[in-house]
């Protein structure tokens, strides 16, 4: 059950007493900005000949920090340090590692508002989205500790097949893992992957994305503050390319945990399978093209709210975002008009402001993706129901601010129905039968999240039986396809959207970071020969 008062992604009513603390944190966090940061390898501060700047998407005039451009050598040094630290960390009692992760979660909770304020500056999140993300991270760490405890550290006594044989199954860590995180949930998803590896006794080389490195740096410090020893966690900043080339080929890499685009994740999986001498695990959480179905029996007001929140929360930059809707033709125009009104009412602007619901896009590449998609839709007969514009002037001219956009009347096979764009563009098509809607929803290589709005329970049952996505929702007003929470909705993609079939924040996630060892100890009977 969700504790009352906590801000989650799907909170419809929250205890609004947090605003003062958050606003104070917005001011306090500025003291961290503009500094030069090192990487951390084996507990040592490490610099690089080249550096890069991290700037705020709210206004790129705000310099958040200067970071080393780590290269292949740093990746290799990180892996060496993580291997050196592995024996000590993996041999510790699993309860000791739980204590470290719980302490990290506590430190994170103490910094809830500062981390949320940082997410606003670094990723452009509104206060509700930012607080929900930090809350998710804290809950995720605690949830994994509980799962590890409930499973007795994955140590299971087994039966004795012969006199004197004591047998047990022990799930053991692999070694040094590389953790690579995306820009859109730089705290929660990075913290989740790092915890999956560390809690189970592996060590980590963590490379945050260059779009949000300051969150990554803060996360590294929190784990060290929690008690993770030097070398058991290492931080390498910089571009993905050289880092990726070095780690997939390194003989001492035990596994990779990656959250990001399908293109990069698939490349990592293929490379490691080709280059390494034997199988090494890749825990990959990738992109998607998430559908929501609205049937003729749906409560349209609920559907509009759920779809608007899922399509335009964090400006559509969620792997779980609804990016296509299939609506029954009999209710299509009613749904579209209400959705247009809802989208047009969203306050767009500086996410530090309380009333803003829709902040900036992450960078200029996102602007180009947005503009190209709108042009293409109009060229191909699409109808612009809402939005479509890039905003100009004042703050709008400094960051990338666009309007939440809804497009109808495109052919079902159009690129905008099939490719993940990761910008706030929602494509809406119609259907006549639920069978057709399911066929359209499933006609994709992706398989992360999907939703339905229907008041007929038979339609919901039909949907759950046939939808080929890992995280599915019915009638979710707080977010048609978004807002999974640790311990409630294990979050894992099917097909091209994920590699393991075990959801993040679910009871089986930790198993991706361990392998089974069958231990047999033979004890001679006392007084034997
Ligand atoms: N399934 C999920 O749980 C989930 C969650 C969040 C985001 N995502 C997906 O992530 C994407 C958005 O995030 P993004 O734009 O940061 O993704 P991205 O793939 O561009 O980058 C992710 C990370 O990979 C690194 N990288 C880039 N090239 C690399 C290479 N050749 N080798 C190794 N690392 C490399 C980047 O530096 C970054 O740290 C979307 O596709 C979204 O759907 C998925
Ligand atoms: N927990 C979040 C994760 C989104 C990833 O991009 C959600 O379910 O919306």
UniProtKB/TrEMBL annotation:
Query: Domain Aldehyde dehydrogenase: where?
Result: 50-514
What Gene3D superfamilies does the record tag this protein with? Aldehyde Dehydrogenase, Chain A, domain 1, Aldehyde Dehydrogenase, Chain A, domain 2
**Could you tell me the keywords of this UniProt record?**
NAD, Oxidoreductase
Decide whether keyword Magnesium is in the record. no
Q: What is its EC number?
A: 1.2.1.88
Pathway assigned in UniProt: Amino-acid degradation; L-proline degradation into L-glutamate; L-glutamate from L-proline: step 2/2
* Catalytic activity field: L-glutamate 5-semialdehyde + NAD(+) + H2O = L-glutamate + NADH + 2 H(+)
NAD as UniProt keyword: yes
Q: What class of enzyme is it?
A: oxidoreductase
Highest taxon above the source species? Archaea
> Annotated Gene Ontology MF terms?
L-glutamate gamma-semialdehyde dehydrogenase activity
Name the UniProt record assigns to this protein: L-glutamate gamma-semialdehyde dehydrogenase
